[in-house]
Amino acid sequence: MAALDRDLSTVIIPKPKLVPSGLDAPSHHEPTEEQSTIYTAGRGPANLMLTAYAGTGKSHTLEELQHHVPERLRTTVRERNGDYSILYLVFNRKNADEAADKMLSTTACRTFNGMGHRIWAATGRSLGKPDARKPGTILREYINEGKRTRGERDALWAAYDQVVSGVNLAKALG
């Protein structure tokens, strides 16, 4: 059952029920109780935050929600000051790009990282240059902090290059 917290305007969507193997989900269906709660809340002026597990239909629900938001509450996306009626935050650029192709112009699709950069930039402060040595610096501080035996520190230093290379590779691959 969907929970709508009136103070926070948060809809929490439970884990989805599994569809038996070999059966496809219906292409058109009546809204679930959770979706109906979201669509009803979307008609009002309050902010709304959806919290849901992977595979619960967030993208589909947001695509439909756009059509439930009354015209008087819709605003045009203006990149300069960030006015929009729906902000869709995702974890990676691929999902943001896919969502942007399906959403109305009143929906802004952003990554959490990109949104953080926008907020920081709005403060007028410089983000500075990225520090390519940051993973190594963090690991170096970790190795040297606390009460470690010489053997523990030696083992950590022996893995240092592999760990830093692995972190840098993971960052490069996204």
Task: Provide the fold topology.
Blueprint: E1 3-5, E2 10-13, H1 33-42, E3 49-52, H2 58-65, E4 86-90, H3 93-102, E5 107-111, H4 112-122, H5 134-144, H6 150-173
Parallel strand pairs: 2-3, 4-5
Antiparallel strand pairs: 1-2
Helix pairs in contact: 5-6
Descriptors:
174 residues, alpha/beta, 2 domains, three-stranded mixed beta sheet, 5 strands, 43% helix, 12% strand, disordered N terminus
Number of separate structural domains: 2
**What summary fits the major beta sheet?**
3 strands, mixed
* Shape summary: elongated
In DSSP terms, counting alpha (H) and pi (I) runs of 4 or more, how many helices? 6
Percentage of β-strand residues? 5-15%
Number of strands: 5
Q: Show unreliable segments.
A: 1-8, 18-26
- Give the structural class: alpha/beta
Strand-and-helix sequence, N→C? EEHEHEHEHHH
Radius of gyration: 22 Å
- Average pLDDT number: 75
Distance between the termini: 35 Å
Helical amount among residues, as a percent range? 40-55%
Strand order of the largest sheet: 1-2-3
